[in-house]
Every structure is written in structure tokens, then in C-alpha cells.
Amino acid sequence: MRLRFTVLILAAVLLALSGCSLELRSIETLMRPPLTATEQELEKSIDSFLGNNISLRSPASGSYHSAITLHDLDGDKNDEAIIFYVNDNDTAVVRMCVLKKNSGGWQLVSDFAGNGSGVYSVDFYDLNNDGGDDMLVSWYLFEDKVNKTLTVYSSSRKGNEINFSACVTETYNLLCVADVFSTGEKQLILTYTDTVKKAEKTHIRLMSLNSDNRVELLSETLLDDRISSITSLKADKPQNSDGTRIFVDALLLDNKLITEILVWDNEKEGFTALIPSSRQYDGLVTARSSNLYSYDIDSDGIIEIPKREPLTVQKNSDTVSGYMLVWYDYHNGGFFKERSYIVNIRDNYRIFVPDVLDGRVSVKSESGSSWSFFDDKGDKLFTVTAYKADEWNGKSADESGVLLATADKVYVCNVGEKLMEYGIEQSDIDNYFSLNS
Q1: Residue among 362, 296, 355 nearest 329 (CA)
Q2: CA 258, 262, 267, 268 torsion: positive or negative?
Q3: For residue range 364-419, what is the model confidence (pLDDT) as tens digits?
């Protein structure tokens, strides 16, 4: 028990110092310098308050992966310690303990049963705009494969004391936190699938936490019957737009994935779709393979929507197992291309297409494992060959260099002279190449 706490406390303190979370993998291999006085004091306090007959539980997802999380909950610039655990004689319910440091040492603030058999995620946001972070804990039950339970905990400080309370508990499957009204205050956006009825119904809910720590349901929208589930929920806020956009990736009954872009409509007092639904569900715009989710592909704060498009293939090519993966930004009522990749399905890699070649590249497959890339003039630009690891011996004199070596394959590139006429060199191909994760 004591060694387990020592390692976890050490990791938690490292997280606090680094400002980010660390997944506890292979913690047995971590160096264990002597504990500081603060770490020793926290470890003793946990032993004192919780005893020895417990097992720690870590969140399964999210930004925080440690069973012991250090975070300032009440805005006093000092971290509280949040511990998730189960009693060894009752492992069906995860409990949460909160300790606060004061002049007399660590003090127990709260110790109570959570709302699930496991912890899915922990996040921190100031939802009631009081200057202190509220804690969002997502719980899950092993028998429920669709929905989770979100509990919002708010804390406030009076003198040296901290008051810690649960504001709301909601069933959901995906959540997102965003400033929907562009007022500087954040709201909760939850999707919920009602699986009790024979025909599953999916809702999207907008909720806020007021100054009295009461949760208000601002709107609830029933999504189209053709949606079987929500697979991704994100938000962005373009600089030159009317407000925050909510991206809902939804799986249709025919196993196609589409993206709804929702914005708040003051007149309707609810969300409205930017893309007309008649075009949306006919598959003319965002319908695609079920494993391609919306994502900020270029890290500019704006979410793009992916779409598979056919490759241009040389006439004398072998069969090509691949496609173009094109990411689009939606604004001013239309879709605009942001970034393109050529994807090789057989050998599981993709190559970024720079603007100077976008729309001008064709592919020729030779002997299955070798692809050559041509410009629109028919000039060969470069060739990528995927060798089996046990076949590659590094003796191919006509190869320019190794792009990547894995346990199974070695990816090698041969660059032609014509490529350099576009201002692209071998080192650029190294940067453009990646596995198709």
C-alpha cells in the first residue's frame, strides 16, 4: 500500500510542477528519489484518512490520468488533492476524496461515493464565473456501453474553509464545454442517447451553471431519426464569424458519418444547423466513411471536416488501393479546401500534398509495394517503396533515403529531379510522410 502511494504521489507532484498530466505507464521503472516533506505529509494524510484497505482508480480518458490529481479548486492559488479509490470490500462503486492543505496540514474536505463503477474522465472549468474552477467528473458503469454519468462539483472558500458540493448529475454519451453566447462564460453541451425505448432517440442539451450553483437547462434538441449515434462533439470560434460553432459527427443508420455544424439562434432560442439538412443527409456534402471525424488538422483553432475523394491514377498502373483525404473548412456558406493527403491503404501511410502540387498529382502503383507520384505534365516526382523489414538490407543504391522504419516495414523514398523544380527536397518528403493512424 505504502509503495503504491509513494509512486502515485510522486507522479502527481510531477504533474503539478509540469502543468500537464502524465499517464502512469510502467511506473515501476521510474526513479524514486526521497520524498519531500510535502509529499510525505500528503502520503501520511491519505493513509490516515482512507486506511490501508483501498485500491486507487485512475480516469480512463481525458487530460488527467492519475488517481491522485492536484488542482486549485477554490481559487486560493493552492492545490487541493483529489483521490479516486475503491474500498477493497466494495469495489462496485468508486469513491472520491478531497484533501485541502492549510497551516495545520492536509485536511479532509469531502469523502463520498461517486456515481459509477469507474472514472471515465476529470476536467476543470469555471462554469459559474466565480473565479474558481468547477470539477467535471464523468463516471461509467460497466454494463452501459453507450452513456456515462457527468457530475459537476463546485467549490467555494470561506476563510480557511472550503465548501464542496455536487451541482448536477446528468446522463450523457459525449460532452463539450464552450462559450456558446460569446459572453466570456462557458456552458455545457451534452449529447444523450435514450436507449430505453425501442427506437433510440438522440438529444443535444445546452446547460449552464449560475451564480447559485444551480444548473439550468437552456435548450434541448431532438436530432434526426436517421442518426443512430453521436461519435464526436467539438467546438470552435472563428474570428470573423457570428459565434461559436458546434461540430456534431453523427453516424447514420446506413453506417455513413455526417457532420452537423450548429450555432445558437437567439430567435429560436436553440441551435440551428449551418448546412441545410436536405443537402446534409442526401450525402452531397459531408457524408463519408464512419471512421473519419472532424478535427483541427492544422492546429489553427478552426475545425475541419474530412472527406474521401478518388485518386488520379496513371493509365498503365497496377490496382491502386488508396484515396485522397481532403480536409475542408466551412465558412460563408461554402466549403474550402484546407489540406490534402494521399493515403496508401495497403501499406498504411499517407503523404501531405503541398499547395504547389494540390490537384496536380497522379499515382502509379508498381508491384504492389511501390508507388510513384507524377505531376500533371506526366513527370515523375518521387517514388515510395514499402519493404518488409526482413527483406530490407539497405543496399539499394538507387534509393534516396529511409523515410521510416517500423518493426514490420521500412519505407524508402527515391526523389526525382523534377520534384526540386517545385521547391521540394528530400527533407520535405520526410516531413510530409506519416503512418495512416
Answers
A1: 296
A2: positive
A3: 998 778 999 999 999 999 999 999 988 887 655 455 589 999 999 999 998 988 99
Strand order in the sheet with 305-309: 305-309, 322-331, 334-344, 349-353, 433-435
Q: How far apart are the C-alpha atoms of 56 and 87, rounded to whole Å?
A: 9
DSSP 210: -
Q: How far apart are CA 400 and CA 389, in angstroms?
A: 18
Distances in Å between the Cα of 317 and the Cα atoms of 324, 344, 362, 382 are: 17, 14, 10, 15
Around Cβ 5, how many Cβ atoms within 10 Å? 22
Q: Which three cell numbers stand for residue 343?
A: 493515403
Q: Is 329 left (phi over 0), alpha (psi -120 to 50) or beta?
A: beta
At a CB cut-off of 8 Å and minimum separation 6, what does 404 contact?
349, 410, 411, 433, 435
As given in the structure block, the three cell numbers for residue 194 are 435514450
Comparing CA positions, the residue from 125, 200, 204 lying closest to residue 170 is 204
pLDDT of residue 178: 95
Specify the pLDDT at position 228.
82
Task: Give the span between the Cα atoms of 286 and 155, in whole angstroms.
Answer: 42
- Counting DSSP H helices and E strands in the chain, the numbers are 5, 27
Alpha carbon distance 84, 69 (integer Å): 9
Give me the residues paired with residue 334 across strands.
331
